[in-house]
């Protein structure tokens, strides 16, 4: 009989494990994959997430494995600035930096710190049932009974589907390639991320460590076909984009649809709680999906520090987190649509340029500030 079971060792489940360990809870994480090996891509850990890693004693390790990013710039195809978000002042205020890092590096740091013995790999949850406790059945035949369950099993969560019988996945109508390559960026991009907006397509890149660049490219679905040539597709973009694409080996590129989860009314049931993408997956346009799963784990931990009644913690958790998460899911969806306009781009860029920087900063501060 487990006191606490966590289903899924993604960034959300691993952060939750670290937080429960810090508070001496007994828990087991079940992960379907045979090893902790996330998709080969980079990820941005924003200041909100890095403040939490600081509290876990992991900030320096993550900073050293990744690259500090002090600002994000949106430009047009020829790299003319549309908007800049500098976070230096907020980094000082919150005593943490944005960090771009390889996903594998981040997940390994989290997994090693919580102790690999607490993670059961090759355990893919097949069925979850509520009796007196939760009965968990895995595809490998293993069965377990658990008092408390956390569903951290991502956007296609079986825990959510079977217990809440809900979960409408929305497709944004955009295809997204992610790539990793060894590339020497011009020095001015060493600590800045760039996102370039074209017509019905976008390209972003960021340095994640010495010589390593993570990039992503999106096109609207109507422009997509099998074996689309990315270099041809982005030939009207600055030559730097084409050089990055040329430097990337095909085996280091992955392709996904951009999807999110229609907000669901309740993230918890008796003795069970969903966190991260399982509860509120967002499109990636604000770079906040994983950061929000980290914030979820943190808030659960903070509430457990003063109250060990899990059911009242889960209720309070949703009350605290709901507004911020809903705002991110909604704004991210809208930003994704605007950034992929196919017509009226000059007007869009003009309007974007006229948004005062102070307004932008206010919105960013709201996201980077922890709620508790
Ligand atoms: C293109 C793109 C770029 C992104 N960039 C960023 C970014 O820069 N910053 C950011 O913060 N976020 C970003 N995100 C979002 C981020 O990837 C997700 O929000 C984050 O991974 C969610 O973490 P999670 O732990 O909730 O779920 P997941 O990462 O999906 O982890 C779920 C885990 O559960 C396991 N699992 C699933 N089903 C089962 C089962 N039945 N039994 C056992 N285990 C199971 C999976 O194998 C997986 O390990 C991006 C997303 C995309 C698509």
Class derived from helix and strand content:
alpha/beta
Could you say which overall geometry the principal axes of the C-alpha atoms support? globular
Largest sheet: 8 strands, mixed
CATH architecture: 3-Layer(bba) Sandwich
Q: What is the level 1 CATH name?
A: Alpha Beta
SSE inventory with pairings:
Blueprint: E1 2-7, H1 11-22, E2 27-30, E3 42-45, H2 47-55, H3 59-65, E4 67-69, E5 71-75, E6 81-86, H4 88-94, E7 98-102, H5 103-114, E8 119-120, E9 125-130, E10 134-138, E11 143-151, H6 158-164, E12 169-182, E13 192-197, E14 201-209, E15 212-220, H7 230-233, H8 239-246, E16 253-261, E17 268-269, E18 272-274, H9 277-280, H10 289-306, H11 310-339, H12 345-353, H13 357-368
Parallel strand pairs: 1-2, 1-11, 2-8, 5-13, 11-18
Antiparallel strand pairs: 3-7, 4-7, 5-6, 9-10, 10-11, 12-15, 12-16, 13-14, 14-15, 17-18
Bound molecules: flavin-adenine dinucleotide (FAD).
Flavin-adenine dinucleotide (FAD) binds at residues 7-13, 30-33, 43-44, 124-125, 152-154, 158, 176, 178, 216, 256, 276-278, 284, 287-291, 293.
């Amino acid at each position: 009989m487990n006191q606490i079971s966590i289903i899924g060792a993604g960034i959300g489940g691993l952060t939750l494990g670290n937080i429960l360990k810090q508070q001496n809870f007994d828990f087991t994480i079940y992960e379907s994959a045979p090893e902790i090996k996330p998709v080969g891509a980079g990820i941005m850990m924003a200041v909100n997430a890095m403040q939490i890693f600081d509290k876990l004693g992991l900030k320096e390790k993550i900073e050293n494995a990744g690259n500090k990013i002090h600002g994000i710039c949106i430009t047009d195809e020829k790299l003319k600035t549309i908007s800049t978000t500098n976070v230096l002042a907020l980094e000082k205020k919150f005593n943490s930096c944005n960090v771009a890092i390889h996903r594998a590096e981040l997940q390994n740091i989290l997994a090693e710190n919580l102790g690999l013995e607490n993670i059961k790999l090759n355990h893919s949850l097949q069925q979850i049932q509520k009796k007196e406790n939760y009965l968990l059945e895995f595809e490998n035949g293993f069965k377990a009974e658990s008092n408390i369950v956390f569903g951290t099993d991502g956007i296609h969560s079986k825990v959510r589907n079977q217990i809440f019988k809900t979960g409408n996945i929305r497709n944004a109508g955009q295809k997204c390639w992610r790539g990793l390559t060894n590339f020497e960026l011009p020095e001015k991009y060493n600590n800045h991320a760039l996102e370039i907006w074209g017509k019905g397509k976008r390209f972003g890149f960021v340095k994640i460590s010495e010589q390593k660049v993570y990039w992503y490219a999106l096109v609207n679905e109507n422009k997509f076909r099998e074996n689309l040539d990315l270099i041809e597709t982005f030939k009207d973009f600055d030559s730097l984009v084409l050089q990055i694409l040329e430097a990337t080996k095909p085996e280091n590129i992955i392709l996904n649809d951009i999807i999110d989860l229609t907000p669901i009314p309740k993230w918890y049931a008796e003795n069970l709680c969903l966190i991260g993408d399982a509860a509120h997956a967002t499109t990636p346009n604000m770079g906040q999906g994983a950061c929000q799963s980290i914030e979820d784990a943190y808030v659960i931990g903070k509430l457990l520090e003063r109250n060990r009644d899990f059911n009242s913690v889960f209720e309070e958790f949703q009350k605290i987190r709901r507004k911020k998460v809903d705002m991110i899911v909604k704004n991210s969806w809208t930003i994704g649509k605007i950034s992929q306009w196919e017509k009226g781009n000059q007007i869009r860029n003009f309007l974007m340029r006229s948004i005062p920087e102070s307004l932008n900063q206010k919105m960013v501060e709201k996201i980077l500030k922890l709620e508790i």
